[in-house]
Design goal:
The protein has 266 residues and is mostly helical. The protein has one domain (2-198). The protein has helices spanning 21-43, 51-77, 79-84, 99-117, 121-128, 133-146, 175-194, 203-219, 239-265, and strands spanning 2-3, 10-14, 17-20, 162-163, 171-172. It has a three-stranded mixed sheet with strand order 1-4-5, with no helix packed on it. It is globular, with a radius of gyration of 19 Å. InterPro entries: Lgt. It is a multi-pass membrane protein. This is Phosphatidylglycerol--prolipoprotein diacylglyceryl transferase.
């Protein structure tokens, strides 16, 4: 059994300036997006993405993920807390970013980018899908360093079970690391390999939706559920799990309709 190291959330202090690990994880996510985007464009030159376009795309994505992620956390998961502490809404360096809110924010940013550049929405999302999971992994590592979003108590003895002393003395799943490995590294490997070859329009986006939705749905069984605006819903599933259901359904629908369209042309 392990004990959480209780990291200092501040990585570096320079006078009054404090650089937090959580912020550094977001910086790492954006840098990885930029580097992987360049690599993806080089291996698939027929997609027609330039370095400048990737940099512009990153800017739209950064704004979407920060605004959407924070609004999602405030509206979907902890509205009561932020209603009582409105000044905390802007304190994103303390953590508290909803994936589903950030996802919607990024979609809005990609739609706006496509409108302004003439690129199709699905052309944009198919390109960015393989670039996102490493950023998700970085975010979950930030959650682990912050000591937030801890797991459920273990029901059997596990050598990697972890005690979070500020919560209680129970050994728990280090669910942040599970998610970093699943929604982050595993999903990245799947999408990076899948997107290496030409695929029908919308197919890469569909695999992202299905892959993330399923992996997050599974991870929630090991994670202490967020309170959510509805708490635990029907069938004992969390708010996050129910938010994953339409993601998977949309991904399956995209794949099914694309395959049907391809078959009809052959």
């Amino acid at each position: 059994m392990l004990t959480h190291p209780q990291f200092d959330p501040i990585a570096l202090s320079i006078g009054p300036l404090a650089v937090r690990w959580y912020g550094l994880m977001y910086l790492a996510a954006f840098v990885l997006f930029m580097l992987l985007g360049r690599a993806h464009a080089r291996r698939r030159p027929e997609l027609g993405w330039t370095t400048q376009q990737i940099d512009d795309l990153l800017m739209y994505g950064m704004i979407g993920v920060v605004l959407g992620g924070r609004l999602g956390e405030v509206l979907f998961f902890q509205p009561g807390y932020y209603l009582s502490h409105p000044a905390e809404i802007l304190a994103i360096w303390k953590g508290g970013m909803s994936f589903h809110g950030g996802f919607l924010g990024v979609l809005a940013g990609m739609w706006l980018y496509g409108r302004r550049t003439g690129k199709g929405f699905w052309q944009v999302t198919d390109f960015i899908a393989p670039l996102v999971p490493t950023g998700l992994a970085a975010g979950r590592i930030g959650n682990f360093i912050n000591g937030e979003l801890w797991g459920r108590p273990v029901e059997t003895e596990l050598p990697w079970a972890m005690v979070y002393p500020w919560v209680d003395a129970l050994p728990r799943h280090p669910s942040q690391l599970y998610q970093a490995a699943g929604e982050g590294l595993l999903l990245f490997a799947i999408l990076w390999l899948y997107a290496a070859r030409p695929r029908p329009l919308k197919a890469v986006s569909a695999v992202f939706l299905i892959g993330y939705g399923l992996l997050r749905f599974i991870a929630e069984f090991f994670r202490t559920p967020d309170p959510g605006i509805f708490g635990t819903l029907s069938l004992g599933l969390s708010t996050a799990q129910w938010l994953c259901v339409p993601m998977v359904a949309a991904g399956l629908w995209l794949l099914a309709t694309n395959c049907k369209a391809i078959d009809s042309r052959t």
